[in-house]
Specification:
CATH superfamily of the largest domain: Tetratricopeptide repeat domain
Order of helices and strands: HHHHHHHHHHEHEEEHEE
Shape: globular
Oligomer: single chain
Radius of gyration: 21 Å
Strand order of the largest sheet: 1-6-3-4
CATH architecture of the largest domain: Alpha Horseshoe
CATH topology of the largest domain: Serine Threonine Protein Phosphatase 5, Tetratricopeptide repeat
Number of helices: 12
Number of strands: 6
Largest sheet: 4 strands, antiparallel
Amino acid sequence: MIKTMLAFLCFAISLGVMASDVDPADDVQARFDQIELAMGGDESAIDALATEGEDDPLLQFIVGTALANLGRVDEAAVALQRSIRLGDDMGGLVLAEIFFEDKDYLNAFAWAQFWVQSNFTLEEIRRGEANSDLGVSLLRDLLDLLDEDEIRTAERHAGYLLNEWLVDFEKKTSSCIQPQGICQEWTATRRRAPAFPMSMGDRRRVGFTRHAYLVDENGRVADQVALHASHPHFARSAERSLRRWRFESSAAQPSPALLQTTVIFKIQ
């Protein structure tokens, strides 16, 4: 009996060693686990993602939000700005939220304006089509918090960002985290829109979440992790919705894929 238990223990340890040697770049479950650890505050996972995803806009976004969760705002800002440089404008919206929470209202104003003008034309803004956008909502809140001199300073800072960053900006982030070829084989056949969490009341009429999720061989969302949420209530609503999503693969023998999606919440 003791020999059997020892043999089982050795087998379990060997499996653990084998699992630790899996390269996240080659295995979607290993990458998902790494992302989940990073979002839980594991610094070694964050460092690994920062290194492995040096030129990947989404992985840099994850590094930024993970660092923000740890309260390391300056480092988070560096990673999120890198994600923007690489083509993921969602980093701008997260920067606006992070700086707003950190009471750095000048930077919050600048990045909220960057977000709005990277997603809406001036004509759309004039027609009011951006009025229910989270960036505009943040700008309204900020205008109530800043005096006239601060607003002018914030507008100059926003102008610098728009001239420096937006001219050559090109969105490059797809729904796929990895692997690219397999991601393209999957098509969503059922998407359940999340309900606006009425528990929010009037605290925030707009918000967004971003999730990474594993699609298994059967086209179901096997696991998911929130990469960012304007409020935990939004994250929980999106999570409930994602569990009901279904996918179909064009492959004869489907393989799992790691995807991401952004959910925008608005209440008119």
